[in-house]
Amino acid sequence: MTATPHPDDAGRAASLLAAQNKAVALFDMIGRELVRPGVTEAALSEEIYAMAEARFGVASHWHRRVVRSGPHTLLPYVENAPDRTITADDILFVDLGPVFDEWEADFGRTFVLGNDPDKLRLRDSLQPVFEQVRAEFDTHPDMTGEDLYARACAAAQRAGWQFGGGIAGHLVGDFPHEVIPGDRVASYIMPGSTTRLRGVDASGRQLHWILEIHLVDRAKQIGGFYEQLLTA
Fold this sequence. Notes:
This protein has 4 helices and 9 strands. By secondary structure, it is α+β, with helices and mostly antiparallel strands. The protein has a single domain (9-229), classed as Alpha-Beta Complex (Creatine Amidinohydrolase). The strands form 3 sheets. Strands 6, 7, 8 and 9 form a 4-stranded antiparallel sheet that branches. Strands 1-2-5 form a 3-stranded antiparallel sheet, sandwiched between helices. It has a two-stranded antiparallel ribbon with strand order 3-4. The protein is globular, with a radius of gyration of 17 Å.
């Protein structure tokens, strides 16, 4: 028997999608106007913050801003690295959690400066792998967090890369990512998570998830990141 949808579900899904659409517009501006060689990761992060506030009225981000370039692109979200200057032939990714009108977005994209074929191939692999993993989610309604993580790793391998993250996503909604306890496996798409991704929360509302694709080539010291809503 199909459960009766919660009356808040349609509105919550629409609000999350609206927030993501604003994130898409913000990242388009970041790529056109801010990503360049000669700027440090820290300085680019500050410029992104100023742009988000000036152009979109973003006063807060629900997790720290992440700008990673070169070998730093191998590192998952939880790691820290010393500041680095972006070069003329670099790969970098930006991972943001801007809050638009009190709704959280969590969005990541990869940029390539120059014409290095390996970096371009990595960047261009990200969206197809994301879509493959989302298609698996769509066709397996009883999938758990650990199931989807395994499928993300397999999709990365098929594309010729390694999966770089210990998680492949997390819950999104009415709480900030930073507040999820690190040992709360049920809130993540990761090994050991038996949470049914198409489940509901304690109030009976549909769970919404972010899918993260982090592809790496450790031998070449490059990585790429692509993140957006899995559900909604």
